[in-house]
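As a warm-up, study this chain.
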Amino acid sequence: MASKVIPWYKRKHGSRVKTDYAYQHSKTVVTQHAERKSSSKSASQVQAQATEAMAEPAYTIPEFRQRAAEETEEYQRVSTNVGKGLAVIQEELSRMRITTKARVDSLNIQREVRDMMAKRPEYLDDIPKMPDFLVALRPHTVWEKTPVKLFCTVQGNPRPIVKWYKGGAPVDPLSAPGKYKIENKYGVHSLIISRCAVSDTAEYSAVATNQHGTATSKATVTVKRASGAGESCHLGLVPHLTEIHPSKLEVTLLDRFKVSFGVEGGSISLVCSMVVIPDLPNVPPIAQWYRDDKLLKAGKLAEMSVGGGAARLTLPHLAKDDEGLYTLRIFTKDGTAEHSAYLFVSDAAPSAAGAPGAPMSVKAYDINSDYVLVAWKPPNTVNEAAISGYFVDRCEAGSDTWVQCNDAPVKVCKYPVHGLKVGRSYHFRVRAVNSAGISRPSRKSDKVTALDDAESQRLQVIKIEGRYDIVIKDDDLEGYVTIPGEPTDVHASEVFKSYVVLSWSPPSPRGRAPLWYVIEKVCCRSTCLAGTGAWQRINTAVKLHSPRYPVFDLQDGQKYQFRVYSVNLYGSSEASAPSEPVEKVDEDGSEVSIGVPSAPGQVIATRNTKSSVFVQWDAPKSPKNLMGYYIDGRVVGAKEWFPCNHKPFKHTRFVVHGLIPGETYAFRVQAVNVFGLSEESQESSPIAVEPALGKGVEYATPSAPFGITMLSCDGASITLAWKSPKHCGGSKVNAYYVDKRNADSLVWKEVNQSAITERTCTVENLTEGTFYEFKVQAGNMAGVGVPSAPSAPMKCEAWTMDEPGPAYDLSFSEVRGHSLVVLWKAPVYTGASAVTGYFVEMAKKGSSEFVTLNEEAVSHRYLQATGLEEGATYVFKVRAVNASGVGKASQLSEPVCAKALPGTKEILASVDEETGDIFLSLEACEICETSKFVWSKNYKPIGDCPRVSVSTKGRTSRLTFTSPDKDDLGRYSVVVTDTDGVSGSHTLTEDALNTMLELSYAIRHPVVPLKHGLNYEILEKGHVRFWLQAVKLSPSVSYRFIVNDKEVTSGEGHKISHDVATGVIQMTVDHFTRANEGTYTVQIHDGKAKTQSSLVLVGDVFKAALKEAEFQRKEHIRKQGPHFSEYLYFTVTEDCTVMLACKVANVKKETTFHWYKEDDEIVPETPPNVMSGACALPIPLFSRKDHGVYKAVLGDDRGKDTSVFDISGQVFDDIINAIAHIAGASASDLVLQCTPEGIRLQCYMSYYTEEMKTVWKHKESKIASSEKMRIGGTAEMAWMQICDPSDKEKGHYSIEISDGVKTHTRTFDLSGQAYTDAYEEYLRLKAAAFAEKNRGRVVGGLPDVVTIMEQKSLSLTCTVWGEPTPEVTWFKNEQEVASTEHTKVTFDGGKFASLVINQVTPDDSGKYSINVRNKYGGEFVEITVSVYRHGEKIPEPKLGQPKTPAATPAATPAATPVPRSPAPPSKTPTPTPSKSHTPAPSVKSPGSTPASTPVPKSPTPVPKSPTPTPKSPTPTPSRGVKSPTPPRFMKSPTPPRK
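Now compare it with the structure written out below.
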């Protein structure tokens, strides 16, 4: 097959230098080139390909090829004889074909190179150009003692000079003759290193220079050494290579595991699929897994499996110990195939909010019979509180019981555990502590057994003749020893602030008896033990068996020496030599190895991939036994940091994965050692997460195309279509090659000699009726990829159906959570008539139930599918329609998930603020080096169109309209190539376009926008300010004021200024007069923008402004003396008192204040205090009597001011409404009260006056006051009385209190039982009132006390009344008085009753009483009579007590009694119950709430008198006289309300 070859010097290759071993990468130690256009292939490769072709799946024989039963036997016989010969012939033909093709391709390449190189000067000689690498250097990994060739292609004008460098130093071939060879042929510059050594591992660079500039290309050469041959130099990129295992399997890695993320306590599997040839189930490939260069072994924490076309590593119980770089190594026939990726394990949810993460890497060291040293690594603390210490727990193997080893948290990441039992096995774990709580425990350590390490050292092994081992113990050589020797080499092996670990060497000789140790200490300074310097035993309660012991109770700042004794059952040895002085060292001590490390140096972040960033930093100046580093990151603008790694990382470079594409981050680093974390480094510069352009890119051939389908067939040709490869290999796919073969043949034939750029191809010269199979290969700048799987057999048979063929090339755009757009291409075969539309069908992945999305066929080749379920996966197919019907369905689309990419943004339609251009723009959420923005209108590519222009900057592309009009309306979409489907669309409507056109015109023809046009305001002192406000002003703004066509400048009488910050331009006129009438204009120029604003101030408008200015001038003068800052106004308090208030200013102590009403001064109880700044006059019980003009006068020697307030008209109504608002809100529910006259409904409130707008209603009808319905009230309530009620008065009653805005309504239902009870109570009270009115009573004339001298005559006369006429009876000392000559009783005319005592004597003293009574009742009145003798002192009267007769009677009474005033009964008396009687019950509406009914303060209210009662010697009223009915303004005598 002849093919068009792309010259190798035209292929662009990016540098393949990897910046960190954490970057996901795959590499093959021995690389096999499978390019379609390779120059040569070995015989073994040819044989392997032939074997692979022969081993294809069995072909299903078509129906037309099937044989009858009798023909089968003959066919098998012939096949058996010729089968082997046919296979040999086919293999030979294939080999010759490949060899011939390779030679032809080589000749074509050489010829094309010569032709192009000859033509090259014609094109480039005249164009100056700086150096540019067409093919950059590529990294290489080689074995020791093998050669390597670095080559690159560079262009430039004039021709650049290329120099080679190794690690920054020039490469000199003369320095090592035969080592280096530098060549330059046909523009290809190469450096050949022969017999590579480990020392050749370095970064090599080619520097091209001409007069226009310099270009550099770099690549890394890694030289590996087989295991056992010494150290290998791997630069942290891959694990050490172990011994090569022999294998005859060919293994090719396919889908490789990516960078993974797990959480503590979870599980994860790393899987790498592969192709194994031959694939033998019982002989799987040899696979090894590494973590951070350490070989992993299968176990409970790491499960490994190989087989079924995949290698799998499962970590079922994740911990942060599992974080690291995982490498899979597969041993193949030609070496090894490897793949590496990083696994991140984050902290699980803390046990308490703010608690730290768990420690990790817990290990036990220095294991002895009762002692072990436990060490671990500290967790990263990003946003949590600092760690204050650690708890170490131990657990015996086989038990689940954990015992805490330390009582107080230890601050360093080491702890000596002692007190273990010999021969027992233990696990250890660690928990971190901070102020918020305790962390989750770490993963438990490996099992360790407490054994005496000295016992194994006392064994000697002697080999005899190389075959026998004789074991001899030191005990046999020492002889019989009883008392052991003293220990030696006593020293401190661990020195920290919390503890010191003592170590020593066991004694020699030791003896056979069990041994233990005794330790003593002494303070080296005189302050210890009062200067005695005595040795103290420190392990009195512990029997030590190990030559290790931790000491915890040493004092700070003191130095100690220690010595040790060996003890057994025979006795104790001599003391060992004292140790050197030991002192606890603070973490901040001066020793280099003590304390946390210093902060790392400068942190630099660079781009890596679309979701990762490469971070590198300088090591700290004081590492102090560094464990590694923690890297933290944060989104720029956010305060919270997040950890990038969760296990200390040893190198000074790291790739941070899992970042959001396009987001901007900053990073910092902390160093870690046994003492904890260092201070944070300085933050790196912010960096956006985007792929590195032209750096670190590995170009590979594309993967295989797929989905080969037939679009049309005419009997001699077949039109095919296929889908793009899933992986483009890092560069654009620019070529396709198609092969064909008969379905019953194994030989493939090339279809196209030159590359096909489209994904359709018409295969011609076919035989009608024959079945064919096809396969397709894709090519890019790296070469041609692997071929696709053979298509299904396709019969070459002419299509004659009337319906159209299938649509093809289904793709998706604008994939969102609930919608997406399906696009397709028109069918090649249209049928009997043109295609008129399309139907789109959809189904969920895995379902066969397809739903047609459009009821009517669409004429365009796209459709938006809506109503999708977010996160669900769908498949689509399309059917074309013509006049004959619906055609064949297209091939199923690729499954698509209805989910938007993270950070997806939509197309923005806007106007450029600088140029006024109307544009559409899209900011891509992800992009790569080869991505392009493809704009379409109505899903048709725009291409080169004069109506629009496209520009791209970074991740943003802009489509700008040159002359936008209605022709530009439509739906615009954009697709970003070489991404995971970044796309968007926007429909440009006519309204939106008109809006943007207006804005565009405003930008291109700028005016200074104004917030407010020219206006004026009157200032204090009568000044007038003319002003306007712009939206924005620049400091260079210029303006001028024009008044009546004359420019006004700042000067006397005018002040002109502006403020850039607020945009205000103003002019102030100091003295505004009639001469200022006219037109005012302001003209503004600000850069290119300008505007003007005018104000016409003439006629009535000017007069009003002038009047206001004069008023303000007068006000200014008034305010120079005492004045009212607020004139009189009214308020109403909660108790409905009206307050006339005002505020005063500029007052002093001598300032006077007076109140007046109608020019009559009012003197309030509390004098006004002007110094408080406010004065008020209370008007209680406000009513119409308070009408009038009120005045407040303020004055002193500086002048006076007056405020007048007229309470009349609307003002009076406003006050009444304000009172009604408060009173209405306080109104109680209606309360029923019965009286002798009828039934009364009462509503209590804080204040009531008849001026309030109060309406009583019965059954929604307004009630007018009449003899039947009386309406009235008191200061505390409003009432309505139904006189002489009847059934007509039953029903619903309500009172409405209006305050002008709101109506307050209270109701009562007077019907049913409520009416019956009220009516009965009314009848009872009416009868009682009638009886009270007609009963017998003493109307007046009798005193309470009479004092008389003996021998005088006493006449007790009174008027009585009653209907019928009452009976009158007199009593003395409760004995009836009979009429005699001395005591005469008379009753005249039924009105006048008298008792006359002639010539009284002391015996006549006593208590007299009169009883007046008829059938309705009566009255009993008592009089006390005292008789005294002449000359005696008049005795003080005592009610009800008789006096002793006086010796000398007086001629006249000493005192004249005050008679009772006669008071006839009132026409409508209101009964006043006495204290001894129970008041009549009040009846309340059934719907009322008891809690809302006010209760009066006193059960028997006392009437308020408007005039004071005159004082009297005997203020007690006559007991026989009832109180008159109180006036309207008095309190109601009604009993208490419930």
